[in-house]
Amino acid sequence: MADHKTKQYIIFGVGRFGSALARTLCEMGHEVLAVDSSEERVAAITPYVTNAVQIAINDEESMRSLGIRNFDAAVVAIGDDLHNSILITVMCKELGAQYLIAKASDAMHAKVLMKLGVDRVVFPERDMGERIAHSLINPHVLDLINLRSDHVIAYIGCPAAWVNRSLKQVDVRNRYGVHVLAIYRAEEMIMDLRADSVFAAGDSLLVMGHKVQVAEVEGLE
Fold first, then answer.
1. DSSP states of 177-211 as a string?
2. Are residues 59 and 23 in the same domain?
């Protein structure tokens, strides 16, 4: 499937990382199937994705019914449960996942995932810490994850023109073509963003969008 067309993603685990990824991909016009064993998490993500299903991790028949081989990419967004992460990864490989991304909690977890044939391993928490450290020295955009397209997730400083204005007032998505996933304010990470969420001086933002549009936002004063 060409990059300019709608892509289809299947995401296993819709905790903070998985749900933010799923919601943003859908907002960008792609199709997302969210899968989780928790009825509560499935209910919470359902309004924001193409489809969401609750299945038991060890239910091989249900896993086969998902048609994993038909998706452009599968994301195993479970990092805090090594057993389930590995189990889902193995099943995704056996069921013909075209491209497989998996979240790791530590270096040993990552080694296991790579041995299993994962195409890309990500460390959202660790990588964010490294980006914050580097951003103190270099304010330029740093890619966090690239989902086989020209779209990136990046950590940038909040443009001065956005300070004291809400997401709705700035109209970030429609005017700039990017999506704000989280606001970092002092020691706090704010992910439950609403239209009336207000940017403050000193905020840093986790944004997702086409690399050209992200770079344009990063260059705003």
1. SEEEEEEEETTEEE----TT-B--TT-EEEEEEEH
2. yes
Which residues does 90 contact at the CB level (< 8 Å), separation at least 6? 116
In the chain, pLDDT over 70 holds for what percent of residues? Answer: 86
- The answer on 97 and 136 residing in a single domain is no
Q: Residue 13's domain spans which residues?
A: 8-122
Task: Indicate the SS3 state at residue 75.
Answer: strand
Domain contains 134 = yes
Cα–Cα nearest to 182, from 159, 154, 163: 154
Q: What is the distance between the terminal CA atoms of the chain, rounded to a whole angstrom?
A: 37
Please report, for the domain that includes residue 158, its CATH number: 3.30.70.1450
DSSP state of 68: G
Q: pTM for the full model? A: 0.61
The string of pLDDT tens digits covering residues 138-156 is: 444 444 455 445 777 778 8
Judgement on whether residues 54 and 85 belong to the same structural domain of the protein:
yes
Take residue 118 and report the two structure tokens written for it. Answer: 């994962």
Q: Is 94 left (phi over 0), alpha (psi -120 to 50) or beta?
A: alpha
